[in-house]
Specification:
One of its GO terms (molecular function) is lipid-A-disaccharide synthase activity. Condensation of UDP-2,3-diacylglucosamine and 2,3-diacylglucosamine-1-phosphate to form lipid A disaccharide, a precursor of lipid A, a phosphorylated glycolipid that anchors the lipopolysaccharide to the outer membrane of the cell. It is an enzyme of class 2 (transferase). There is one protein chain. With 373 residues, this protein is of the alpha/beta class. It folds into 2 domains: 173 residues, Glycogen Phosphorylase B (Rossmann fold, 3-Layer(aba) Sandwich), CATH 3.40.50.2000; 176 residues, Glycogen Phosphorylase B (Rossmann fold, 3-Layer(aba) Sandwich). 44% of the residues lie in helices and 17% in strands. It contains 15 helices and 13 strands. It has a 7-stranded parallel beta sheet with strand order 3-2-1-4-5-6-7, with helices on both faces. The chain has a 6-stranded parallel beta sheet with strand order 10-9-8-11-12-13, with helices on both faces. Helix 1 packs across helix 15 and helix 7 crosses helix 13. The protein is globular, with a radius of gyration of 21 Å.
């Protein structure tokens, strides 16, 4: 059996690697090629093009010559690959900006495809479900998306989310207000645009928090992807005078930020769902071009941007969007977490409820069987 996995962002690379490993457990002779990144390479997937840092946010943000040329080049590589190799199934993972185009190509050329982590039709508009009627199978980890795809007669399976299999009972540092020293995780995001827009705002928030707490605070800045370490350090270097005297560390073990932080400042991506599962109070931040934001409000059903809030259908964690995403507002929320134990505990308990919405355990095994069969 030969499978081609196509993804184009950090979270997709991680999920692609997880499912590739599981497929090879169940069917060791399976040949897996694909578009992916570091994690899929570790899973012994033959990578034709590294697309893992090309994900964009918004409509106009995606109009980037560097990204466009690489995507076009990758598409040409794929067409040549498909001429020379018979693929039993194309597995599209997340990254709707590229994978919806590939889905259309597969339909036109009678190539069977499965979409895993498909577009959030429950958020971006139900009409998008019709675009995947040609899919051999749609495998979604979210119940709210499953309901919409089913409504439009798509061949859809609800798998539950792989995060259901994570052990969240590891020793997590509780908030200890008596120690008078706090740790705050600062997550710039997993896309270049996020990092570029949010990092300066987050760094200024670090300065305000450090001043308000008289230096009794340290910050952990995890790197979502190895290639992002250099641009993150370059941005930090641009603010070295502002950060003078502030205790912070840039780390590559992302899990540590959830275990050792008291609270989190973060972008609206997948990391916010993991943080909620750990019960970590957070401020979810979101910044895109103003025009994209206005179009999004007009054409979509977006009520919340953070996945924990979407799943719980309430603002369990505060969201700061566009102009509201500023250092003073961010700092205000974090200070409230760190100085009001009752509010902190209530927020933590509320966020942990998302675990109940992740589905049953052994998710990857179920997904792998759906793909192989």
């Amino acid at each position: 059996m030969r499978i081609f996995i196509a993804t184009g962002e950090v979270s997709g690379d991680i999920q692609g690697a997880l499912i590739a490993n599981e497929i090879k457990k169940l069917a060791p002779q399976t040949i897996i090629d694909g578009f992916g990144g570091v994690e899929m390479k570790k899973a012994n997937v033959n990578i034709l093009s590294d697309m893992s840092t090309l994900s964009t946010m918004g409509i106009f943000e995606g109009i980037n010559p560097k990204f466009a040329f690489k995507k076009l080049g990758a598409f040409n590589i794929l067409k040549e690959y498909l001429k020379n190799n018979k693929v039993d199934v194309m597995l599209l993972v997340d990254n709707q900006g590229v994978n919806l185009i590939l889905a259309k190509y597969c339909k036109k050329n009678n190539i069977p495809y499965i979409y895993y982590f498909p577009p959030h039709v429950g958020i971006w508009g139900e009409w998008n479900a019709k675009r995947l009627l040609s899919a051999k199978k749609i495998i979604t980890p979210f119940q709210f998306d499953y309901d919409v795809y089913k409504k439009y007669n798509c061949n859809v399976v609800y798998s539950g989310h792989p995060f259901a299999d994570i052990n969240y009972n590891r020793e997590v540092s509780p908030l200890n207000m008596d120690k008078k020293e706090y740790t705050v995780g600062v997550l710039f995001g997993s896309r270049y645009q996020e990092i570029k827009k949010l990092a300066p705002v987050f760094i200024k928030s670090m300065k305000i928090l450090n001043d308000m707490l008289f230096g009794n605070i340290r910050f952990i800045i995890p790197v979502a992807y190895p290639e992002y370490r250099e641009p993150i350090e370059n941005i930090i270097d641009n603010y070295k005078d502002l950060l003078n005297g502030i205790c912070y560390s840039v780390i590559e073990n992302k899990d540590d930020v959830y275990i050792y932080s008291d609270a989190l400042i973060m972008s609206s991506g997948t990391a916010s769902l993991i943080a909620a599962c750990y019960g970590k109070p957070m401020v979810i931040c979101y910044k895109i071009s103003h025009l994209t934001f206005l179009l999004g409000k007009f054409f979509t059903n977006i009520k919340y941007v953070g996945m924990p809030n979407v799943m719980l259908n309430e603002e369990a964690a505060p969201e700061l969007l566009q102009r509201d995403c500023n250092p003073n507002a961010i700092s205000s929320h974090i200070i409230k977490y760190l100085t009001d134990k009752e509010y902190y505990d209530k927020t933590s308990s509320n966020l942990i409820r998302v675990r109940e919405l992740l589905g049953d355990k052994n998710v990857l095994e179920r997904v792998a069987k759906e793909i192989i069969n």
